[in-house]
Amino acid sequence: MWKHFKFDPHSINLSCHTxxxxxxxxxLLHTEWDRALAQNLFTFQIDNQVKQxxxxxxxxxxxxxxxxxxxxxxxxxxxxxxxxxxDKNKFNFNKIKNEEVNSEQQTDKHLVIINNSPIxxxxxxxxxxxxxxxxxxxxxxxxxxxxxxxxxSTHPFIYVGFNSLCGYASINxxxxxxxxxxxxxxxxxxxxxxxxxxxxxxxxxxxDTEAFAFEIKSVNDFDKVARYVYKITNYLTQSEIAHxxxxxxxxxxxxxxxxxxxxxxxxxQPKIGIKPMDRCNFACLELSGYVFLRYAEVFDDLTELExxxxxxxxxxxxxxxxxxKEDVKHLLxx
Length: 334
Description:
InterPro entries: GDPGP, GDPGP1_C, GDPGP1_N, HIT-like_sf
Subcellular location: Cytoplasm
Number of helices: 8
GO biological process, one term: glucose metabolic process
Function: Specific and highly efficient GDP-D-glucose phosphorylase regulating the levels of GDP-D-glucose in cells.
CATH topology: HIT family, subunit A
Strand content: 15-25%
Number of strands: 13
Helix content: 25-40%
Structural class: alpha+beta
EC number: 2.7.7.78
Shape: globular
CATH architecture: 2-Layer Sandwich
Largest sheet: 10 strands, antiparallel
């Protein structure tokens, strides 16, 4: 019924330094997204000429103005806990129209669907095993789906992200975001510190809000790294710690000239209840180097210094961060 794509482990793309180009996978995604656009399946008119600026500073944050995303989207649900039971009476991905499915990786198992209130053009959602009605808690299977999705594309700036409940997820049905970024993000090249040798885990400690980081240089490492990532996200979930995850193509942490997939897991203060929009939210994208905004005045005067201060402001206490890092080291030792 839907367009099908099959992951090819012999053709993976890890580099963020290639020219922007589309392969068969990207062309399928774009074609089906354009088909949905022609069928008026989105909640607002898509503007491909959005205002964009790159902030002055070391991180070169990319900022875009997208008021429609905030004004026309489905009202986000309020969450009080990272672990919240699935509620089939609320919106979930079993309620979407069939036409909103972009493609499937396995027959009605791993779906790529349009985000009908997109952050930018060709924004999709990765929905694994939707019939299982899984809550917004990452699984090994869903992490593998995300890894296979991103390396199937030849686009150097394709991005996959995950927000936990209380970490700015708006729907309690397991999903990841897939987005084509307009340019390279600082997360793709930033230097990280060695953290745990046995698992080859690094620490992204540029901000007080830190992230564990892993790299993948070969498809043979997918399963091993997915299990390490899951160990951490499961620990954070069971500890009721809000978290965000980003996957990008980039430089190896150990050999700068070597391409690698980078996976980051932030642990941070929770956002409880309804998510008011004042100047800027801080979910997976904003932590990674890209900000989309509602208000023109914020777009005009936002600075990297303000972003850094706000990201530092959502850090957990130094005592709790130290405990989390110690706990994670013990987990990765096992």
